[in-house]
Each structure stands twice: as C-alpha cells, then as structure tokens.
Design brief:
The complex is a heterodimer of chains A (255) and B (460). By secondary structure, chain A is of the alpha/beta class. Chain A contains ten helices and ten strands. In chain A, strands 6-7-8-3-9-10 form a six-stranded mixed beta sheet, with helices on both faces. In chain A, strands 2-1-4-5 form a four-stranded antiparallel beta sheet. In chain A, strand 4 and strand 5 form a beta hairpin. In chain A, 41% of the residues are buried. The model of chain B has no long low-confidence stretch (mean pLDDT 87). Chain B folds into three domains: 271 residues, ABC transporter involved in vitamin B12 uptake, BtuC, CATH 1.10.3470; 75 residues, no CATH class; 44 residues, Iron dependent repressor, metal binding and dimerisation domain (Diphtheria Toxin Repressor, domain 2), CATH 1.10.60. Chain B is elongated and about 100 Å long. Helix content of chain B is 73%, strand content 3%. Chain B is mostly helical and 460 residues long. The chains are: A alpha/beta (255), B mainly alpha (460).
Chain lengths: 255, 460
Amino acid sequence: MTAAILDIHDMTVAYDRRPVLWNIDYTISEPGLTAIVGPNGAGKSTMIRSVMGLVPMVSGEVTAWGQPAGSQLDRISYVPQRGSVDWDFPISVFETVLMGTYGALGWFRRPGRKQKALAAECLERVGMQDFAQRQIGRLSGGQQQRVFLARALAQQADLYFMDEPMAGVDAATERIVFDLLRSLSEEGRTIVVVHHDLRTVAEYFDNVVLLNVRVVASGPVATTFTSDNLQATYGGRLTVLDQMAEAVQKQKETT
Amino acid sequence: MTNALMSAGLLLCAKIPIPLTGLTNRLAELLSLPPNSVQNAFWTIAVGAVCAVCCAVAGCFLVLRKMSLLGDALSHSVLAGTAGVYLLTGQVSPLPMLIGALVAGLLTAVLTQFVHERADVPEDSSIGIVFTSLFAFGVVVVSQAKGVHLDLDCVLFGDLALAGVNLNPMGGYLWPAAFRTLIPALVITLAFLAVFWKELKLSSFDPVFATTVGISAGLMHYLLTTVVALVTISAMEVVGLLVVALLIVPASIARLLTDKLSTMLWLASAVGVACTTSGYLLALWLESSAAGMTAVMSGLLLAVAIVLSPHEGLLVRAARTVRLRVRICAEDVLAGLFRQQERSSTPAQPVQSSRTECLKLAGGGLLAAPALRWLQSSRLLTGTREDVRLTTQGTRYARSLIRSHRLWESYLLENFNLPADHLHDPAEAMEHYIGPEMQERLRDELSQPAEDPHGRSIPD
C-alpha cells in the first residue's frame, strides 16, 4: 500500500494553552477536492495553518506521502486568506505571481526566463494576463483572489491548502475559481479548501470535513454531507470540551 | 570650536590633499565665493547625501513593513549603548562605541519582542517602554560622566554643519570623518539589498507565505533590523536623533508618488538627498541647525507630495470631484430639457430654451457655466444665447438618463417600502451612475418595466 497523500493523526492545537482543535484525525488517500466546513471559531483555518507548521501542535503528527509534512513543503502550497496581506504594497500583479516560484528557487537565486514564463502562464490560467502590470491594490476583491490563486499555481504543488478562497468574491470569480480547482484536481492534484458557503459544497466538492473543534464527520460528500451531520456540526459547541479547555488553561497557569 | 576645527582643517590641508579640490575651486570661482567655504559646503553636502541614501533605502522597508517606530527606538537606544561601553571601559573611543551602539540596537529589537510576547503588552507600547528606558539609562550615565567628554548635544542633533570641516586622513587624502562609518553603512545596505532583494520583497509583502515556502520571515526581520541599526548609528553622528525623519519621511513621500518598489527606493533616495542638501544650505543662510532644517524640509516635501500624489493626491482628488460635479450639472440640464420636451405639444421636436434657463437647470452654481460649455463642446447642446436646443446626440443621452431615473424609481417602489413622493430624489441622485449594463439588470428585475411609478413611460 502506498502512503496516504495527507495523514493527520491525533492533532491537538492550542492557543495560549487553551485547546482549539481536539484530536483531529483525517486522511486523504486519493487526489480530489475536499471542503472543510464548520461554524465560526470551529478551527477551520487553524487546522490548515497547523498542518503547514504555522501554528505549533500540542500533540499528534502530520505526514504527507509518508514523510513529516514539514519536510515536504516544496510539494505543498498554502493560499492564505486575502485579508492577511497589505494590498497597498507597491508590487505588480506579475511580481506577486512570480513569488510562487521563490520556494523552488530557494535563497539567493533570482527568477529567470523560465520562472517568468511560468508566472505569465499561471496568470493567463486565471484570466488576469491583462492586469499583469497593475499594482495589486487597484484590483477588485475577486481579482485579488485570482492573483493569489495564480501565485499558488506557480508553486506547481501536489497538495494545496486554501483558506476561504471564496470569501468576498463575486459570482463570476467563484465560477472561474472552481473550474480551476476542478481542472487542478483532474491533473491529479489534491486540494483542501476552507469553505463557508454550505449551498455550494455538494455542487463543487468530492469530500467534506465537518469540523467544530473536533472532526464531527468526514468522507465523500454524498454520504457525509447529511442534515444529521450538519446538525451535529452547527448545533452548538460541546460544552464539556469548552469546560475542559478552561480547566486545562487554569491548571497550566497555576502550576 | 568651529574656528579651532577650521584652522586645524586648514593646517592639515597644507600637508595632505583633499580630493576634488580642482572641482571645488572652479565651483568657487563660478559662484565667486571663497574656495574654502565652497569646499566645506561641498563635502558637507556629500556627507549628507550618503547619509540620506542609507536612511532612505532602509527606511523604505521600515515604512512598508509598518515598523517605523523601530527607527525611533534604535536611534534612542544608541545612547544607552555608548553609555554602557563607557561604563565598562571608562573611555570614549570610536570603534567600541560603535559596537556598543549596535548591541544596544539589537537588544532593543529583541527586548521589544520579549516584552510584547511575555508581558502581554501591545507591540507599540512595548517599543515605547524599551527605548525610553534604554534612552533614560543613557542620559543618566552621560550626565554622571565626569572628566570624559560625552557630548549629549552631539547625540541629539549631530554635526551635519561641520561634517565637511571635520576631516580625517585616509589613503593619502583627507576625507570627511563621517565617511568612516557612513560609507561602510551604505555599502552594507546596498549589498544587503542586492543579495536579499527577492527574500526582502517576499517577506515584507507576505511573511506567512514566505515562511511556508522556506524563506524564514523571522530571520529576514532580524537581518533587516541589524542593517537598520547600523544605518541609524552611522547617520546619527551626522543628524542626531532627527535620523528618524530621514528614515521615515523620504520613504513615505516616495510611496505617495509611485506604485513600484524599485522606483520607490530611487525616489526616496533622491528625496532624502534633496532634504539634507536644502536643509544644510538653508541652515547656512538662516544660521540655524542643519539637522533641524533637514527635518523641516522633509516635512514640507511631504506636504507637497500629499497635494501632488498622482493617485490619491489632494489635487487629483479635487479635479476628479470637480469633473464629476460638472458632469452631474450637465446631465441635469439634459434631463430637464428632455422633460420639457415630453410635456410640450410636440414631443418629437427638441424644445427651444435659453441660456439663462439652462443655467438654472444646471443648478445655477459656479459649475453651471462650465457644465454648459462642456455640453456645447461635446455637441450635446447647440444654438445661441436665446435659442438653445438638444442635438440628436443630446436627445439620445437625455433619454438614457430619464430611462435610468425611471427604472430606479420603479425599482425602489418594488423593493423598498417608500411612499410615492419619496422616489424622485433618490432617483435624481442615482441616475448619474446607472450605465447601460445596469439598466438591463434593472429592467430584468422589474415586473412592469414599461412605466414608472408616476405612470410615465420609461423611454428605450
């Protein structure tokens, strides 16, 4: 048996000693499109941020293709939320997309003709080639999201994590983005998306993770995305977990 | 003291040559000024320029990374470093002082992070706490130091005015003493930029992404802080605490004028040089502090940039507003004439109007006359003073406006619970912004798109 693309095993994450994700277990063995869905504060972004090593785990391990995920970052791409950067920064759309090639270049090496051609190609794939020289702040929200996607494409990764790529995006961009994700998945890549719009989950995704500080259910959309499971995910938090988290925090503060 | 230094400089001159003496002498001849003062001014301006370029380049990244306060903090903690070295060694010699200042600078950066994270204090407060404490420590030590000359004024204000007089022999020539630290600082800054350009750009724009692709944003932060500390310390010899102005203001001005990072660096450097040069010359003329004048000049240039900035400048914005308001006045005239035509006995014929009446339709304000001029020059209105009419083109334009107006009224009636007499005013405001595409969307949304709420037909 070949190693799973992504294997999250017993991952617990805490902010300021207070657990926000409990014993997450999730495995992806086949390429495809996965949505992470859950209410606000469920830890959706935290889940992918800790897989990327941006938030330390309290316990558990994450492997990709059988190796620690941290050693496979050149094959993994992370698309942060659009609001995480300063869009007034004085760089052009093209320069932003070119940054997708920086990981493969490593320290000191400058992007050359090959990288520039790749960036131009990625820009074209998201339909933003006409805006290449535009400063990134002078774009609409949907266009900015497409620039972020083009940058991710330029990383040529096998596994993509995207944090709310549909937030604040117009209907036309949403269509373009999903067509793109679909074609990436058809190329044999794996895409995990933090998603907030329940109406489109069944239409766009193969698999779904229902998350509310723990994994409530996960699996193919057809069997997992049921009203019972949704009820369990959105029907309030587990008060025992909340009390437990407080107890852990207090204990650590007094000892 | 100035005289003593001058004469010392002159004495040394006799033995060791000052570079570019030929050039400065010719300049002096041209301006018919004493060669000596031109030479002094020349080298002072040169020192100021090198200082300005270092500061501007490093400052661009401080501004872009929203770390401007760090420059302030570093410049204050330098005094603590100097004082610390004095306490340890009991003497004042340049190299240990420089090292002490650099250590204090880095200590500021590390302590700031530490207080911020460990004591749960917001980052800006943490910077404020750390640098004022370090600065206070420095002030106390310096004021206690007896027998050793530690000049507080020099730390606070620098000695830009004397930078061209205070010369040191190096490689067979007499160079300004400030070059001893400023030139290495410039070389290191430019080399840092050349080597880490890609990494610097990435980690400044998106530090999280940088970390996920293996380019540590934290490491870049500390490297940049080191370079800024070095620049700050070197520049402080010349401009004192006002180094903060040279770090932050030219970079901010450049940011207002361009959207491109490389251009921003060039522009900031040029602006910085303009500030130190004009500041020094003005100070000479007004017999005032050169560093102070430099900071004043940078403030003035910033004010100019705020007015002239090509995208968001006050001037551009004012022009945009005026243009929009002229268009709105003009459109009010078109719509008014069209309504008169509708009500007339011959609705197919353009109605005859007068200039006075048109001005009234345009609101009668300051913009009414320009609005009419615009209408005539774009051939939407034609005729003489007493006989003004819509052209065919003008009628088409007006019809589209009325269509927008009535579509919006209908839309409001259907979707907002508003009484009929509350529909006209909002539509009057919105009609100027509804283009053909929006008209289509509105028509599709309406259940009865042929008539407006007042029973008038909506023209095609």
